[in-house]
């Protein structure tokens, strides 16, 4: 799945999947497991040593930056064992040529051991841990290949990461179940020791006609019939989920805990040219994915024949990255936006979000409207006054965390008005919203 690491950006990014779609879990909502159908004759899923060395050499040499960031994902990359990664680090140092090498590993945490975590700490790996929340939330969809719950094993992984002082952050999928428990999920993640959190909205469409690729979860330009899956999060639910977490974070946790969506939103509010996340950038296309056999695709959400760029065994990595079709793929994030998006007051913050979610049409019949449009409208409209304030603080070279005191000073006088405020009355904070839709939870 997608993930966020607060690391320095390379000239371009290749997410490496050395085990391809192989995984020891069988999460119901996983969009990548069925990519095995693209490799029907595979005898195993492992990037062999020769291809590993070729990739590492070309990737480092292609980067005209002082820091080169490697991202290891799957499937479940820890299935390869710790010695595979020892060899990878040795190869990185062999070809580093004075550049600093950073490594990030995305894992479900169930196969971590003391030895593995000692290595991760020693080599300075940043670990992204996939965990959806408390036991009852996490185990609803994240199960083993035998259908057994995985939460206990993930929590053992958390214990080992903390024991060996491995830096980690968390990735949590927001689905139809987790979206009902925003505060419970947020507080639980804080309790694990995670200070950096990413909440990924899961939105997939299923077709009964998988075609030649034998892939049932389709991309946004699929021409046949397709239905949004039951586990996908509804737009209003995702918007509400992020608003509820934001309301707690902005009052208590700014500067202590970091939520990817909030950081990226503030970056766009300030006017950063690169907010740090492709889905909220104006264009994309500089973050590709390489499969276990050397195949390169435009993006890990676009591992389909239509978005195949070539194979590193036959074409140099940099040549594949610089293809016109890849540049066009990235530019279409901007050029394909419907008028509704181009005229939206939050275009600067959203930029249409990820193209994989743009399978809806506007009221005027234009295609490429994002399924989550209402969610982001709700979120950006809600956070606007707080983002405005934090932006002013940053421009004055003051910490954004000052927003917490600003809110406290603003809301304290309203406390005296609370007893007289009914649920449908205007909120005492002065927002213009109804009390029940605004601050009622803070004054209970």
Structural summary, described in words:
The protein is an alpha/beta fold and 444 residues long. It has one domain (13-335): Alpha-Beta Barrel (TIM Barrel), CATH 3.20.20. The chain is built from 14 helices and twelve strands. The chain has a ten-stranded mixed sheet. β2 (67-72), α2 (82-95) and β3 (100-107) form a beta-alpha-beta unit. The radius of gyration is 22 Å and the shape is globular. Mean pLDDT is 94; it is low at 1-10.
In terms of DSSP E residues, the strand content is 5-15%
Globally, the shape reads globular
Specify the number of helices.
14
**Top CATH class:** Alpha Beta
If you compute it from the alpha carbons, what radius of gyration comes out, rounded to the nearest whole angstrom? 22 Å
Strand line-up in the sheet with most strands: 9-6-5-4-3-2-1-10-11-12
In short, what is this structure?
By secondary structure, the chain is of the alpha/beta class. 35% of the residues lie in helices and 12% in strands. 43% of the residues are buried.
């Amino acid at each position: 799945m997608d993930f966020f690491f607060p690391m320095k950006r390379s000239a371009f990014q290749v997410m490496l999947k050395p085990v391809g779609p192989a995984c020891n879990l069988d999460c119901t909502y996983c969009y990548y497991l069925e990519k095995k159908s693209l490799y029907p004759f595979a005898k195993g899923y492992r990037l062999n040593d020769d291809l590993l060395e070729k990739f590492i050499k070309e990737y480092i040499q292609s980067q005209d930056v002082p820091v080169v960031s490697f991202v290891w994902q799957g499937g479940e990359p820890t299935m390869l064992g710790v010695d595979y990664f020892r060899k990878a680090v040795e190869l990185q140092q062999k070809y580093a040529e004075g550049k600093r090498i950073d490594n990030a590993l995305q894992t479900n945490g169930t196969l971590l051991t003391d030895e593995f975590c000692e290595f991760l700490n020693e080599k300075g790996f940043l670990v992204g841990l996939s965990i959806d929340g408390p036991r009852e939330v996490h185990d609803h969809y994240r199960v083993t290949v035998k259908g057994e719950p995985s939460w206990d094993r993930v929590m053992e992984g958390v214990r080992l990461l903390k024991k060996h002082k491995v830096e980690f952050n968390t990735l949590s999928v927001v689905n139809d179940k987790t979206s009902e428990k925003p505060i419970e999920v947020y507080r639980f993640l804080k309790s694990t020791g995670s200070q950096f959190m990413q909440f990924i909205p899961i939105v997939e469409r299923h077709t009964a006609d998988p075609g030649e690729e034998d892939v049932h979860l389709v991309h946004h330009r699929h021409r046949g019939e397709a239905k949004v899956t039951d586990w996908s999060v509804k737009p209003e639910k995702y918007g509400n989920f992020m608003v509820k977490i934001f309301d707690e974070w902005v009052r208590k946790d700014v500067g202590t805990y970091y939520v990817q969506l909030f950081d990226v939103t503030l970056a766009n509010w300030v006017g950063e040219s690169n907010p740090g996340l492709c889905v909220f950038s104006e264009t994309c296309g500089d973050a590709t994915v390489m499969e276990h056999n050397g195949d390169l695709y435009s993006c890990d959400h676009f591992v389909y024949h239509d978005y195949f760029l070539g194979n590193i065994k036959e074409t140099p990595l940099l040549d594949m990255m610089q293809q016109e079709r890849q540049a066009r793929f990235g530019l279409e994030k901007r050029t394909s936006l419907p008028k509704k998006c181009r005229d939206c007051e939050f275009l600067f913050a959203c930029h249409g979000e990820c193209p994989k979610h743009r399978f809806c049409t506007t009221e005027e019949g234009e295609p490429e409207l994002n399924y989550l449009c209402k969610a982001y409208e709700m979120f950006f409209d809600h956070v606007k006054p707080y983002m405005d304030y934090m932006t002013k603080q940053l421009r004055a070279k003051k910490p954004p965390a000052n927003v917490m005191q600003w809110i406290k000073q603003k809301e304290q006088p309203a406390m005296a008005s609370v007893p007289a405020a009914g649920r449908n009355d205007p909120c005492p904070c002065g927002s213009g919203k109804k009390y029940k839709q605004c601050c009622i939870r803070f004054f209970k």
